[in-house]
Design brief:
Layout (H helix, E strand, L loop, with lengths): L3 H14 L12 H12 L8 H4 L2 E3 L9 E12 L5 E11 L3 E3 L1 H12 L2 E2 L1 H16 L3 E10 H4 L10 E8 L5 H11 L2
Parallel strand pairs: 2-5
Antiparallel strand pairs: 1-4, 2-3, 3-6, 6-7
Helix pairs in contact: 1-2, 4-5
The chain binds zinc ion.
């Protein structure tokens, strides 16, 4: 559980650290606001993807199931190296093996892993692994595209640059045809 009192103390210290006065009017409520905000944006730390993925539906035609793709799932996460936001879109494809899940549950799964201190590469794999574990599909392919504030606001300052990561499991792993189908489906 997020300890809001600890966060408040830390933010007060942080304000002092940058040479600010945490007791001036504009900053007085800031530690409290940030503590409440962090409880929300790190809520995924207390969540398990299982909650969203364990309720599945059976599909009859097991052999001829094609790719299920949910694209453009907006997410917001926090880079664990700089504690700055990174945000963008997640695209999730899987080939069911007799089991499917409600489409909104895939978006919920993205949230579980986004709402933590994260790195994009790890998050991509975590989503793929969770879907493999609870849905047992023939294969999964995930792509995340994100803009990182730690790259656009500081350092090399490249606004608009996107980081793209992919993760494949099962049937997608060594099948370039399947991978290309995924990319074509994303092309619209
Ligand atoms: Zn960063």
């Amino acid at each position: 559980m997020v300890d809001q009192n600890k966060i408040k103390e830390a933010i007060k210290l942080l304000l002092e650290g940058i040479g600010e006065d945490p007791f001036r009017e504009g900053l007085l409520e800031t530690p409290d606001r940030i503590a409440r905000m962090y409880a929300e944006i790190f809520a995924g730390l207390d969540e398990d993807a299982k909650t969203h993925l364990e309720k599945t539906f059976t599909v009859e035609d097991r052999e001829n199931q094609g790719i299920v793709l949910v694209r453009d799932i907006t997410f917001y996460s926090m880079c664990e190296h700089h504690f700055m936001p990174f945000y963008g879109k997640a695209h999730i494809a899987y080939i069911p093996d007799g089991k499917v899940v409600g489409l909104s549950k895939l978006a919920r799964t993205v949230e579980v892993f986004a709402k933590r201190p994260q790195i994009q590469e790890k998050m991509t794999g975590q989503i793929a692994d969770a879907i493999m574990e609870y849905l047992n599909p023939k294969g999964v392919m995930i792509m995340l595209e994100a803009e990182h504030m730690c790259m656009t606001m500081r350092g090399i300052k490249k606004p608009g640059s996107n980081t793209v990561t992919t993760s494949m499991r099962g049937a997608f792993m060594n099948d370039t045809n399947l991978q290309n189908t995924f990319f074509h489906m994303l092309d619209r």
